[in-house]
Every structure is written in structure tokens, then in C-alpha cells.
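Two proteins were folded this term; both appear here.
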Amino acid sequence: VQLQASGGGLVQTGGSLRLSCAASGRTFSSYVMGWFRQAPGKEREFVSAISRAGFTTTYADSVEGRLTISRNNANNMVSLQMNSLKPEDTAVYYCAAVLRRLGVPRTDDEYTDWGHGTLVTVSS
């Protein structure tokens, strides 16, 4: 599946952004979807993931309660609503997909398809 992330930008501390990831193909609902991020000088890290039907979600501790992942299988879209943003949220955000039946992976090596990232900058 091909993925295209969008929605990044510059926001002040405490602000909000909504990232979107559009997927191509007719089997989007068979993919578990995830969001990862990479800050300057740091390794890529897990942010959130959602199961195929959207019933199961998981978040990194650092974003729990501030970010919300959702998906719309009819429109082949996955979104990440980001509230109460902090400077440490500054990173390039990537959406990722893996074709699997069970589980919601939290490690990047379990995802097979990646989109180009979108930059989120949170100013202090």
C-alpha cells in the first residue's frame, strides 16, 4: 500500500494539529496502521497504532491522553489528532502499514509500508 502523510506544520506549545495519512489500494481495511516519529538526532520511535477495524488502539506513554488515532476504512484514511502539543513532540511524523490479521505492533521493524514524513514543529 502507498501512503501519503500530511497536516504537519508549526504550532505553539499547547496547540493542536491533525495529521492525516491517505492510503492507496482497495485492501486498506486489511492493514494495521501506525504512526512513528523521528526527532532531530534521535532514533525513530513509536507513537500510536490502530487495528484493522479500529477497535484497538495503542499509544506511547509520552503521548497517551494527548494524541488520538483514528481511521476511516471507507476513505482509506488514518488520522492522528494531536492536542496539548509540547516542544518535545517536534519531529518528522511517518505513517506506516502492515498487512496482518491480529495484533497491533509497536516496533517499526514490524511495519512493511511507509509514507514520506510530515514535519511537526512545536515552538516554546
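Next, the second protein.
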Amino acid sequence: QVQLVESGGGLVQAGGSLRLSCAASGRTFSTYTMGWFRQAPEKQREFVALTRYIHARTYYADYADSVRGRFTISRNDDTLYLQMNSLKPEDTAVYYCAASPTTSRYSSDYGIWGQGTQVTVSS
């Protein structure tokens, strides 16, 4: 059974940090693009970051403008990470990891999703 399971969410003050993890199982995702998305209450799900293996332990990464310079996406074997620094109240959302055979910022291109983990940033 293919599965993605997120963890690491929680409550943090503005300016603080959190590290999200996403454990993949059921198949190998080494050739897949892995992404993070988030959804705040009453808002559409939005792209946060993605990473794709290129070659020779080199990975391509892309970030939404709103998080570039503050968030870092990485992966190790079948675990995906999102290091979030300098958090802001507007980062409050449910964060989802997802897998896609294509490199895309569009959530509709991702067919495998985790259940999500809540991140709340207080002001």
C-alpha cells in the first residue's frame, strides 16, 4: 500500500522554526517529484516547495515566493523534509506532502497525498 505520512507540525511563535517530515512507504519514490503544499482555512491549497532528483546526489528544488529564503526542502531515501524558519502567522495551515511523476507546482499533478499536519504560528 502506497502511503505518505507527515509529522512534525505544531504550535510555534512567530519567528520560530519547525521541521516537517514525510515518510513514504509502499514503493520507491526516488524518481518522483516530492512536494509540500499547504491549505489555510477557507483558502485553496497552495504550492510551497518541491524537490526532484537529478543525478549524482544532486537535487533540483523550487519554492513559492512567499517561503523562499525561509523554508528548505530536502529528502533522504524515502523521507521528505521541510525545514521552516522565521515562521509568520500567515504560514498557519495544514501542510501536505505529495508525490508526482512530473515536476509541477500544480496540486492536480500530484496523485499521492499524505493526510496533512497542522502548523499554527502565533503572533
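The mean pLDDT is 95. The first strand starts at residue 3 and ends at 7. These notes refer to the second protein only.
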